[in-house]
């Protein structure tokens, strides 16, 4: 029995709304013309997207890279065209947010709230997972403080305007060349996602649209993983790592330091498919569609082509 034809709209909607895999919803829309029309008209792809990532409720417009010429069609035809476009966009979004490969999403290090010695203890060292490069220690160190409650922050740019982050990791640095080999961690770590404030005269001002809970950071020389309670859509492409509470007192100067070997953010990058346009201080933003190609297929082709020889590498072995 074709329940879309034979049942009332509410019952059919209740049944198809149980689909929580974007691929299943795409398959449902391919069953027949009536099923496709129903899926599109009832905005099922959009509803699934909002269920998977509630941050998408902040999206207030969709922008396509190819603008259509002015049309003389009726308003009803234009509305149907917009509804079909929205279905395509949300279906692609849902698939990208759930089936794109999970990868490291940090693109570059931007700034640290303080640094003890530049360039030897720069934030850029935290892009490398090693605690030494050759015979040289590789880590970031804050400036020292008498007050152990003074926080520190590290700011990173992600690989895309839109990234779905699932897990973050921090590796405290063990000062192996110092007597006692102390580990200079913080008591807690917290993560924020956001974007540049395009409406501020200060070019270094950011709007944080998501703030995680505080995670306890163990005073241990290992990469410590922090799984977010649910996947989080980072809108705007920036990550702020906050270190709260200093642990290690340096005997040489009686100051507290925080030292970090490596920071990692794991998730799904939507760089090839979408961009963010004009995000504001309230979190509203426009979604720019860069490509309707399947993000998984684009990634597979990129892997077949191999890594780019032009990609810069930091901290290479001498």
Automatic annotation (TrEMBL):
Report TM segments.
Answer: none
Pfam families attached to this UniProt entry = F-box-like
Entry's Gene3D superfamilies? Answer: 1.20.1280.50
Q: Enumerate the spans annotated as F-box domain.
A: 11-51
| Disordered as annotated region, ranges | 295-318
Family annotation (InterPro entries): At4g00755-like, F-box-like_dom_sf, F-box_dom
Q: Write down what this protein is called.
A: F-box domain-containing protein
Q: What organism does the UniProt record list as the source? A: Brassica carinata (Ethiopian mustard)
């Amino acid at each position: 029995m074709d329940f879309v034809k034979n049942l009332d709209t509410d019952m059919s909607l209740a049944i198809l709304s149980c689909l929580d895999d974007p691929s299943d919803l795409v398959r449902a829309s391919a069953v027949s013309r009536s099923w496709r029309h129903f899926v599109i008209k009832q905005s099922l792809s959009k509803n699934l997207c909002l269920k998977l990532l509630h941050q998408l409720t902040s999206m207030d417009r969709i922008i396509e890279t190819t603008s259509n010429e002015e049309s003389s069609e009726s308003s009803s035809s234009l509305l149907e065209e917009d509804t079909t476009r929205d279905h395509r966009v949300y279906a692609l979004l849902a698939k990208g947010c759930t089936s794109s490969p999970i990868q490291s999403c940090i693109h570059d290090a931007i700034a640290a709230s303080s640094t003890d010695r530049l360039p030897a203890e720069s934030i850029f060292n935290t892009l490398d997972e090693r605690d030494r490069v050759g015979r040289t220690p590789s880590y970031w160190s804050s400036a020292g403080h008498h007050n152990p409650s003074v926080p520190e922050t590290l700011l990173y740019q992600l690989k895309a305007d839109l990234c779905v982050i699932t897990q973050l990791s921090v590796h405290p640095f063990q000062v192996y060349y110092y007597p006692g080999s102390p580990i200079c961690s913080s008591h807690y770590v917290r993560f924020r996602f956001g974007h540049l404030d395009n409406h501020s005269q200060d070019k270094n001002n950011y709007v944080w649209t998501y703030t995680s809970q505080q995670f306890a950071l163990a005073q241990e020389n290992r990469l410590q993983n922090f799984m977010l309670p649910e996947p989080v859509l980072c809108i705007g492409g920036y990550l702020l790592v906050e270190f709260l509470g200093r642990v290690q007192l340096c005997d040489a100067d009686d100051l507290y330091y925080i030292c970090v070997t490596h920071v990692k953010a794991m998730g799904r990058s939507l760089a090839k498919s979408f961009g963010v346009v004009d995000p504001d201080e309230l979190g509203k933003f426009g979604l720019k569609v860069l490509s309707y190609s399947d993000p998984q297929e684009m990634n597979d082709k990129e892997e077949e082509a191999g890594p780019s020889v032009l990609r810069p590498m930091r901290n290479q072995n001498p």
